[in-house]
Amino acid sequence: MAIVIAYKHEYKDRQMPGTISVIPATAEYAEQIQQLAGEAYHVTPELAAEWFDADQYRSRIAHFPEGQFIALDDATGRVVGMTSSMRFHHNPEVTFLEEWERTTAYG
Predict the structure, then answer these.
(1) Measured torsion, CA atoms of residues 42, 43, 45, 51, in degrees rounded to the nearest 10
(2) Using CA atoms, how far apart are residues 34 and 25, in angstroms rounded to an integer?
């Protein structure tokens, strides 16, 4: 079992004082994570829904919760940052040629 610690950080160069909290991601934030990913890659909401499906984030959170974090604006409760990681078995002595979609089980 992993122990997760949340930290509070002061925003820098912000007009209004405030803080963000870095916390473990939970399924309830999946839609906001999807929206943030779309904003980060400058794609339409429709394309973001196709590329960064909220159910894929829910699956990552369910399968590897200790590897998923979000940054929340404490004043608004809005997701303003995120990390997403996954674990898989890889032998570094073997060239990795598998397609990303297959590696991630299509999500």
Answers:
(1) -120
(2) 12
